[in-house]
Amino acid sequence: MTQLSVQEYQKQYSDRTLADIEEYSSVSPLIEARDLWKVYQTPSADVPALKGITLSIQPGEFVIVVGKSGAGKSTLVNLITAIDIPTRGSVLFRSQSIFDLPEDQRTRWRGKNLGIVFQFFQLFPTLTIWENVKISMDLLGEIPMSERKERALDLLRQVGLEQHARKVPAKISGGQQQRVAIARALANDPPLLIADEPTGNLDSRTSEEIMDLFASFVARGKSVLMVTHDRGALKWASRVVEILDGKLLG
Amino acid sequence: MGKPGGRNLGWEVARMMNLDARWIKIWRDLWSNKTRFLLVTLSIAVGVGTIGMIYNASHIIQRDLYAQFKRGNPAHVFLYAAPFPKEIAKAAQGLREVKQAQARRVVRAEIRSIKGEDENLTLHVVADPSAFEVNRFFMEQGEFPPRVREIILERQSADLLGYQVGDSVLVKLADDRQYILTVSGIAHDVNEIPFAILGEASGYVNMDTLRWMGEIPLYNRLEVIVEGEKVGKDVALEVAEKIKKRVLEPAGYPVFSIRIPGVGSDPGDHWAHNQIRGFILILQIMSVMATLLSGGLIINTISAILIQQTKQIGILRAIGASRKQIVSMYLLNVLIFSIVGFLLAIPFGLIGSWWLANFAARFLNFDVSRVTLTWDVLLIQFGVAIGMPLGVAIFPILNGTRISVYDAIYQFGLSSRKRVSRLEKWLSRIRSINPPLLLSLRNTFRQKTRLAFTLGTLTLAGAMFIASFSTYSSLTAQIRDVERYVAFDARISLPRGISKVAAEREALRIEGIGYAEAWALSEGVLVRADHSESQGIEIVGLPPNSKTIQPKLIAGHWLTPLPNSRQVVVNADLATEEAGIDVGKEIQIKIGGKTHTFTVVGIVSKHIFGPRVYMDYISLTRLTGRHNEADEIRVLAEEGKLGSLATQDLVAEKLQERFRNAGLSKQNSVTRASFFSEFTEVFNIILFVLLLMAGLLALVGSLGLSGTLGINIMERMREIGVLRAVGAANHALVKIVLAESLVVSFVSWVMGAITSAISSPILAAVVIYAVLETQMNFRYSLIGLALWFGVILLIGVFSSLLPARRAAQLQVREVLDYE
Asked: Are residues B88 and B38 part of one domain?
């Protein structure tokens, strides 16, 4: 099937209804990276980090990108989340090219559709645990104000941290902080969760717990893209992609 | 950052209000760094409070002082004339241009204070107490008019002399006639220059008392209010001229001088109107500077917060915060600073204005009725408190939030500039510099905007510091110039009729006096080409080869010993005041009612105590018909040499005693040092105020420098970590920070020196004009420049202490966290 953007689809099939368009969207990949290149310019030479990567993730898929340190895993995550700009190539989310959007719309898109989990948790130190979860909802503003606190507490309950809701991040362990980060990532109910080495700083037992959480997320029909160098995590994946020297293998 | 886990008011307030988490974040971030919060809000409060203080105080002064002054119905012009009857005032009032005229007698006398010291006193007699309408005073105790042998004292005079109603006071007239009067009342007279400033007390008696004291019962000052709303100097002088020509002179009462009351004031204005305006101007400049500096501090603080939170900004963007949302978060941050600063500024401004107005009230002798907060001042304060911080902070906020999400999260902590400036390239080529020092030098010039702010503040502080010293130096240089005209060890005034020869001979008989010289003094007016007359000028008759004056000629030559030659030398005060006076030109001077023509042969430097004309002693005494009479005797312990302070005191004491015993003079003698002591005191107050300003600027500059160094360290954490990893010890890191600080300090010193070349003459001119109502020659202070070098080095060292400590405390592990 030749991939068309929503606009192209609308243009070509002008007699189609909104429902048709939504159906069209649902059958296409959730997110798709096409021929992604990232070249870092240094004073001595241009260093390519990604060399034409193409990757798509379907709804309900748990994709793990595995590779050694320096292989380009984090760069791939940064480009798919639009945190960084590719040197060449595009990222399509439900067939919409992300980099065609103005920056502020791109930010809003990220807040609504992606839940990002970082290796170092990146929680706000002066906010309590539940406030750290709620801030994502406050920024997007789509969930009614009156429901946000309850939702934050509910998400914390799901990750097993309700009893710590009023603590600040410094008062809980690394594994607990990562679970808060996952709760925060789920705050706006995004269809895709992207995690960059989420277990890189955790012990094996805590890592298992985190992976369990991701699996439950996938079980609810959401997608997960995770990059890791930990091969022990691969058992959770519905698809594993290996990256080496900026290229996908196989 | 403070301890995030701690619970306090800030946390609870935010939690209870169930606010949007981003506002809670801003509130908690503010609360978690209380020192910074206090520093910024106080700096806003100081800037905005100073504005409130100055504007409110000037409101109070205008409302209370000027209103109390206007209530006294001030005269526009005074005519001093030969003793005349009170009917002259009625005749003057008959002129169409004259609204009111009132006769008054003023007599110079002395009064003995409760401590036994003789102080100058001006005795006033109002012609008709029942119709006392011009330059009125108001009774605070007792009744007006006083009865015979009673005196009403002005309240400040009574206070400083130590008298109360019912006390007896000793009053001495010029020929040492002494009278005991009873203090019958205390009056508040805002028209007179206060005792505290002029050193001359004011007392009010009736004409019968004056007659009893042996004075003729006539008046010598006509106080005139001219018709019209706003009367200019020219109009007032014109009307006075008309009164003189149509009323006083035809009636046979020669006019000695015409004077607008006050110190250079316009007719009807308070006597210190211009000086008050000048001081308010200086204070306003101060408030603008304080505001600008607090603006600078806000820029620095907001930059520091943004840099410190760069990563958090990146995370916020990553989880969906738009740039607009982040900008609004940090604007709210500034708004909180502003509102708290504003709330602190209101009481600070009110208390400050109360203090300033009371300080002025004690000095200028008026009452402060109340301190009020006016809407216009409040609005100005609000506008500055809210608008200025937001206005200046928007730049670092826009700049700080422009960073890409990727750079914010992954590149923070490492200086990632790709462009290397020419200066840095040049620095890197210098092989002889050791690498840590080279790093310091390169660090200094990395962030040009930040460097510009720090340099700007320190340069401003330096320029102000040097300008303050230059102003003081200019003032003291002027005093040294004036000293040339007061080149005696002691001086004593002589009553009329004392022979010059007798006075000089008597002085030379005193052991320890090696030289004596008598001067004749007179007063006159300059008659201009259009026949109008100047205000009174002092005329000095002295031996052309005088040893008690060392004239500094700025044009022409000094008097030549040719009696009756009609040569005069004028001072620069007169030459600047009156157009057309130059060497070789003829001028007309009216002395004792007769106009004489003189040739100007020289112009001497400024005297600051008013216009003066020098002529040969014999010429002047011939013109005044007082042959061989002297008005003052000036002595030196040793001819051609000025004595020490002790010598001056000794000579003065002997001179006074000898002349008193010989019945030549009952006056107190004056030493050269005492003549200048009042000037020196005023100048020291000015220097203190100016240095306070410079100190304030230096303090803010120092905080700015410290902040800049701190931000630079935060930005280069990874670099510092690498240095640590390759073995840089604490002292090596401290040296790098210290060197960076000293480089900035030194550059700011050079820039301050350059800027001071412009700022110093301006400040000196403004201050000197505001205080002395005159223009003076400027002198740049090299001592100030050298002192600032020392101060700036100290600032450099102290500013680097905290940042250096922070750098030394950084661990390699912390740096890894930044990766």
From this structure: no
Chains A & B: contacts with CB separation below 8 Å: 92
Question: Based on C-alpha coordinates, what's the Rg of chain A?
Answer: 19
Residue B180, amino acid: I
pLDDT, one tens digit per residue, over B270-300 is 888 877 777 777 777 777 777 777 777 777 7
In a domain, B16, yes or no: no
For residue B304, what pLDDT band results from cuts at 50, 70 and 90? confident
3-state secondary structure of A89: strand
- Among chain A residues, CA nearest to B312: A124
Each residue of B673-698: pLDDT tens digit?
Answer: 777 765 666 666 666 767 766 676 67
Domain ranges of chain A: 58-85+103-248
- B319 CB neighbours in chain A (<8 A) are 110-111, 116, 135-136, 139, 184-185
Same domain, B106 and B159: yes
Domain residue limits at B261: 75-268
Q: Cβ contact (<8 Å) for B28 and A188?
A: no
* Total tally of structural domains belonging to chain B: 4
Q: In this predicted model, what pLDDT tens digit does every residue of B761-774 receive, in sequence order?
A: 988 887 777 666 66
Ranges of residues in chain A with a pLDDT under 50 are 1-7, 9-10, 13-14, 16-18, 21, 24-25
**Is the pLDDT confidence value at B108 over 70?**
yes
pLDDT band at B14 (very low <50, low <70, confident <90, very high): low
Here the contacts of B193-196 (C-beta below 8 Å, separation 24 or greater) are: B193/B263, B193/B271, B193/B272, B194/B156, B194/B363, B194/B364, B194/B365, B195/B119, B195/B154, B195/B156, B195/B157, B195/B160, B195/B161, B196/B156, B196/B160, B196/B362, B196/B363, B196/B365
Contacts of B312 in chain A (CB under 8 A): 124
Q: Do A168 and B312 lie within an 8 Å CB cutoff?
A: no
Q: How far A238 CA sits from the closest chain B CA (Å)?
A: 26
Select from B412, B446, B477 the last residue of a domain. Answer: B412
Domain presence at residue B23: no
If asked whether residues B806 and B760 sit together in one domain, one would say yes
State whether B316 and B445 are in the same domain.
no
Q: Are strands A88-93 and A31-41 parallel, antiparallel or unpaired?
A: antiparallel
Residue range B689-731, pLDDT digits in tens = 677 666 766 776 777 777 777 777 766 666 777 777 666 777 8
B68 and B145 inside one domain: no
Q: Which residues pair with B105 in a beta bridge?
A: B125
B591: confidence class by pLDDT, cuts 50, 70, 90: confident
Q: Is the minimum CB–CB distance between A116 and chain B shorter than 8 Å?
A: yes
Based on the domain organization, do B476 and B423 belong to the same domain?
A: yes
Whether residue B82 is predicted with pLDDT greater than 50 in this model: the reply is: yes
Asked whether the predicted pLDDT for residue B434 surpasses 60, the reply is yes
Asked whether residue B24 is domain-assigned, the answer is no
User: B213 to each of B150, B152, B203, B205, B507, how far by Cα in Å?
Assistant: 12, 16, 14, 11, 31
ipTM of the modeled complex:
0.78
CB B570 within 8 Å of CB B600: yes
Domain shared by B135 and B211, yes or no: yes
DSSP state of B391: H
Separation of alpha carbons B241 and B617, rounded Å? 30
Residue B334 and residue B234 in one domain: no
Out of B4, B22, B319, the one facing A125 most closely (by C-beta) is B4
Nearest to A138 among B22, B29, B418 (CB): B22
Domain boundary among B390, B412, B434: B412
* Residue B21 touches partner A, C-beta closer than 8 Å: yes
CA atoms within 13 A on the CB side of B652: 22
Instruction: Convert the pLDDT of each residue in B167-209 to its tens digit.
Output: 999 998 866 789 999 999 999 999 988 887 777 899 999 999 9
Yes or no, beta carbons of A124 and B321 under 8 Å apart: no
A56 forms bridges with which residues in the sheet? A32
Inter-chain touch B25–A131, beta carbons under 8 Å: yes
Within an 8 Å CB–CB cutoff, is residue A84 touching chain B?
A: yes
Residue B280 lies in a domain: yes
Instruction: Tell me how close the Cα of B422 comes to any Cα of chain A, in angstroms.
Output: 17
CATH topology of domain A58-85+103-248: Rossmann fold (3.40.50)
